[in-house]
Amino acid sequence: MIEVLSVASEVYPLIKTGGLADVAGALPAALAERGISVRTLIPGYPAVTGGISGGRVVAEFGALFGGEARVIAARAGGLDLIVLDAPYLFDRPGNPYMSPDGWDWPDNWRRFAALSWVAHELAVGLVEGYRPQVLHAHDWTAGLVPAYVKYGPSDRIKTVMTIHNLAFQGTFGADIFTQLRLPSHAFSMEGVEYYGGVGYLKSGLECADIVTTVSPTYAAEIRTPAFGMGLDGLLENRSETVFGVLNGIDVTAWDPATDASLAQTYTASTTHKRIANKMALQEAFGLEVANAPLFGVVSRLTWQKGIDLLVACVDALVAQGAQLAVLGSGETELENGLRAAAMRHPGKVGIVTRYDERLSHLVQGGADVVMVPSRFEPCGLTQLYALRYGAIPLVSRVGGLNDTVIDANVAALYAGVATGIQFAPPDEHALADAIRRALDLYRQPESWKKMQRRGMKSDVSWETSAARYADIYANLLGLKDYDDQNG
What we know:
alpha/beta; Rossmann fold; 2 domains; nine-stranded mixed beta sheet
């Protein structure tokens, strides 16, 4: 059996701000079916320490980046967890990365250096009887993991660095370097140095054995200046070890046939029952309970997610007889723009500016169309949920959105393969045209129903992606016939 330690700053169902948590929470179970044991190292935020019971202390540190800490082994949410219990680093309210006033915690460099250091210590024998063979680091918050391995005492450990969003890089001043427990020669282009400072994600991309990201299209995009966020040269130089592995979703947690968050469960053969969820969604967002096409959005309200494009198109959407329900929070200007639209169009536009897992399920189960108008999108999970729940995804043609949604163009409709609507480029004119196309299709009930059912039959599980990760781990460890041995 291959032993993998997954290192992540959030994991569903204990702590979640975005898709990283969903991936970190769902992938271990999918890998277990392929004979791979995964434990997840996670910071001991209040939501995490409060969500575990029966854990046992397996290691203690008298001085770990500024304070005392414990390592706790526990099981929660179906996951085997290793919790870094360091209250001086992680016992803080609200968002894992930001203070209540909306600013990044000034010691984030220290918090996530500690997480990465403990991952390395676990791999070199911190806990008797546990020696993971692969360290799988997720995003910048685990970006120092490959560096600690590269500059550490063992060449036995293999490392995988996964980019969930290249826009978040974890860059800090050079003054922190001397406190990172790395040798002086690690401050170089081949190590953690990045434009004169320290780059956590950059160091992970430089030092890891394998780099993955969450869709094939995004893996190609980030090797170009347009999407590379300053790291395209590095990624292009090591393109032979950069792979796009498409995300999946937890099809048990996201199943319209059993979802307790819905007003009415249903299957691909009973999509007419979605009307009960639509009515519940309209009521939840203060919309008129009417037989109108309902567009839903579940998103961070940011420029990256294209929410400014949505704000620009709201009036035209309503003028064509549609409704809009938006769930999410983010940039103040965009929140205010959507609130203003709701005031202009009472009963037609509703916005809820908070994280609400139950409502997010209801949007998928009740909206006719789920919109993801992102300017860039590494993979995106929202459109996968939409497919699973019979909502038609309307997406920009970037990243994983391009890889998972088949556009309802004339040829695809004729061939009977369309599952949604794509638009390009990501601007308000193309989005407005996509909205018109969606409304035209909505007014063709038979074609619409076929698209719904086709989407619901799409394979959005982790099965294929878990097999790809199993191959990556096995190849790193020289187990070329691993798949044959494990079915």
